[in-house]
């Protein structure tokens, strides 16, 4: 949730622990925006409680679902994402557009972006070159930081509040009750239609 909403008052609700749910979503696209790559989603649980009793195949999600205790992107998960999602999607895109098999993956110096990533690529993805930005230049140079991530967060927040208002209006709940009792990672999954 955005930090500047009254819902953050949930920290002071009697008998209610504040939500500690967090996730990391790694987004990727080409410069023209017509090749969107399946995002890497890091969550703190491999099998969330909200998914129990549901028929959810994480392989069929529109994200590559991985988990660790802090929901951080690790070097191993990032390398796996490059070889299972990024590489195949780029190779398919280049073939469909009859473009040469050349790709430049632009990364910041986040801890999850391993140096020497090119050596960890599968042989079929050795056409992918990696460029790392110098430290402290990401907000200025990284294309994903030039409104793409901001736009995604804005659309997500808009979608979230629409869901909140739809539910609270139709079943006469307060926003706090919705947040406390009805909003889970499964809510996001169901609303996205996957």
Q: How many helices in DSSP terms?
A: 6
Unreliable stretches: 6-10
Q: What is the 3D shape?
A: elongated
Instruction: Give the averaged pLDDT, no decimals.
Output: 79
Please estimate the helix content: 25-40%
Main sheet record:
3 strands, mixed
Textual characterization of the structure:
This protein has 194 residues and is an alpha/beta fold. The chain has 6 helices and 5 strands. Helix 4 crosses helix 5 (175-181). The longest helix has 23 residues, at 148-170.
Give a concise summary.
By secondary structure, the protein is of the alpha/beta class. The chain has six helices and five strands.
Features:
two-stranded parallel sheet; alpha/beta; three-stranded mixed β-sheet; elongated; 5 strands; 194 residues
Topology:
Layout: E1 23-26, E2 40-43, E3 64-67, H1 75-96, E4 103-107, H2 117-120, E5 128-132, H3 138-141, H4 148-170, H5 175-181, H6 185-192
Parallel strand pairs: 2-3, 4-5
Antiparallel strand pairs: 1-2
């Amino acid at each position: 949730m955005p930090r500047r909403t009254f819902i953050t008052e949930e920290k002071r609700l009697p008998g209610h622990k504040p939500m500690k749910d967090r996730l990391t979503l790694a987004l990727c696209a080409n410069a023209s925006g017509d090749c969107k790559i399946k995002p890497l989603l890091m969550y703190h649980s491999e099998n969330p409680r909200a998914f129990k009793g549901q028929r959810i195949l994480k392989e069929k999600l529109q994200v590559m679902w991985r988990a660790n205790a802090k929901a951080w992107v690790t070097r191993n998960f990032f390398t796996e994402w490059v070889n299972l999602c990024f590489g195949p999607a780029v190779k398919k895109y280049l073939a469909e557009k009859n473009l040469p098999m050349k790709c430049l993956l632009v990364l910041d110096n986040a801890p999850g972006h391993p140096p020497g990533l090119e050596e960890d690529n599968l042989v079929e993805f050795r056409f992918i070159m990696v460029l790392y930005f110098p430290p402290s230049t990401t907000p200025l140079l990284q294309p994903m930081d030039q409104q793409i991530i901001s736009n995604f967060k804005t659309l997500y927040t808009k979608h979230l509040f629409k869901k909140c208002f739809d539910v609270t209006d139709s079943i006469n709940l307060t926003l706090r009750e919705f947040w406390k009792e009805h909003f889970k990672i499964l809510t996001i999954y169901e609303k996205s239609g996957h």
